[in-house]
């Protein structure tokens, strides 16, 4: 069982976690995201000899099916240039293939090869075990609540992106509502 936060007060993680206080949840999500990215990078490199961008392309194609690089970029929130580099590498590794869109011959679709589907299947099992380890201290109802809370934050962030980002008007609206104004990364 994992120690509670009070038992780890002097750890580097506890120090950075507490720097800005509990009202800075997005900052904490960012820290956690970076840690998970680092772990995932090691995991997929070791098990499938893929980098993180390549793994994301494989995983999204497995879930989405054949799709364009543009749609993949939009759905995965990944820069088109990063998708392009990953596609080139994955094509050379024979994990994905370029296909003609049957509805519009001008559009190129990306799809997994049999080898790509096999890599995804093996990695999906390993990733499921990784997720189980990472969330082992949470009960099922807690996981559901966490997922709901994260989705609510994600919806607001998505709306802010759709509205053009975070503006001075947003800052004044939030500050007028009594939100903490301490600097945060």
Highlighted features:
two-stranded antiparallel ribbon, single chain, 63% helix, 2 domains, 185 residues, Arc Repressor Mutant, subunit A, disordered C terminus, mainly alpha, 2 strands
Q: What report would you give on this structure?
A:
The chain is globular and about 55 Å long. It is mainly α and 185 residues long. It starts with 11 loop residues before the first helix and ends in a 9-residue tail after the last helix. It has 2 domains: 124 residues, Arc Repressor Mutant, subunit A; 41 residues. The chain contains 8 helices and 2 strands. Strand 1 and strand 2 form a beta hairpin.
Give the helix proportion (percent range): 55-70%
Give the N-terminus to C-terminus distance in angstroms. Answer: 31 Å
Which ranges are low-confidence, i.e. pLDDT below 50, for 5 or more consecutive residues? 180-184
Radius of gyration: 20 Å
Q: Which structural class fits the helix and strand makeup?
A: mainly alpha
How much of the polypeptide forms β-strand, as a percent range?
Answer: 5-15%
Question: What fold name goes in the CATH topology slot of the largest domain?
Answer: Arc Repressor Mutant, subunit A
Q: Compute the average pLDDT.
A: 87
Biggest pleated-sheet summary: 2 strands, antiparallel
Number of domains: 2
- Going by CATH, the architecture of the largest domain would be Orthogonal Bundle
N-to-C order of helices and strands: HHHHHEEHHH
Strand order of the largest sheet: 1-2
Q: Report the top-level CATH class of the largest domain.
A: Mainly Alpha
Oligomer category: single chain
